[in-house]
């Protein structure tokens, strides 16, 4: 069974009397430990698709199975529960609490998951170690560089061992060199077995993935294997 199975996934937004078909019958599977870049021009449906895959929203039509569970018609509270258990999010703008120390930022998903304090602390510290910030756990994000902030955000996304890691333009606010370092970290996470979907506008970033899905006008324009990834297997 694939981790993600979507069939005829459709999202229609109502704008007054107008219907916008932001996604128009998209189908694909994602197997465990795939590394996929989602590309496409502005307005092609990338955010809409990531919101559906990330269980932030439900489709208007079509089916979405996440680890064999049909999540297409869940109520908001059920959806939130699946989201907290299954999905790790990484954003362009990091979305950290700037004045709260790194370890507390990383512990947040574990609080939602009901993990007890001592275990939360040790798991968060260990995960910060994995992203190379073992010596920064007491720092606040506003005392860190952009690349370090994104590492904290990646630790927060990973701490609950999610089934999939969803990253929306994770290098969009970083200079080229720092962005490359973050892509090295994604490569490492991929090699450790994580399943990664990442939205990007940049070919240089997408070529780190092993598969590229291009959207256009709410449809899949192409779904191709990356022949020569930046880092070979
Ligand atoms: P991206 O994810 O590509 O950076 P956004 O998702 O912010 O961009 O927006 C992409 C397009 O969707 C834009 O044209 C924007 O105007 C439109 N859009 C986003 N959210 C809404 C909304 N709530 N209502 C109407 N249009 C929206
Ligand atoms: P992308 O992320 O590729 O830029 P989006 O998924 O944001 O694309 O948008 C796809 C289409 O859906 C666009 O035409 C956009 O204007 C529209 N759209 C996105 N969100 C909303 C919304 N909340 N309400 C109405 N239209 C929306």
| Helix fraction bin | 25-40%
**Strand residues, percent:** 25-35%
Counted by DSSP, the helix tally is 7
Q: Provide the low-confidence segments as ranges.
A: none
Overall pLDDT, averaged? 96
Unique ligands: adenosine-5'-diphosphate
SSE order in H/E notation? EEEHEEHEHHHEHEHEE
Largest beta-sheet details = 6 strands, mixed
Secondary-structure content class: alpha/beta
Shape annotation: globular
3D structure, described in words:
The chain is of the alpha/beta class. It is 33% helix and 27% strand. The strands form two sheets. A six-stranded mixed beta sheet has the order 6-7-8-3-9-10, sandwiched between helices. The relative contact order is 0.19. One adenosine-5'-diphosphate binds at residues 42-43, 46-47.
Task: List key phrases describing it.
binds adenosine-5'-diphosphate; single chain; ATP binding; 233 residues; 4-stranded antiparallel sheet; alpha/beta
Short note summarizing the structure:
With 233 residues, the protein is an alpha/beta fold. It has seven helices and ten strands.
Indicate the topology.
Blueprint: E1 4-15, E2 18-30, E3 35-39, H1 46-53, E4 61-66, E5 69-70, H2 76-86, E6 87-90, H3 102-112, H4 117-130, H5 146-158, E7 164-168, H6 176-191, E8 196-199, H7 203-206, E9 211-216, E10 219-225
Parallel strand pairs: 3-8, 3-9, 6-7, 7-8
Antiparallel strand pairs: 1-2, 1-4, 4-5, 9-10
Helix pairs in contact: 3-4, 3-5, 4-5, 5-6
One adenosine-5'-diphosphate is lined by residues 13, 15, 20, 22, 40, 42-48.
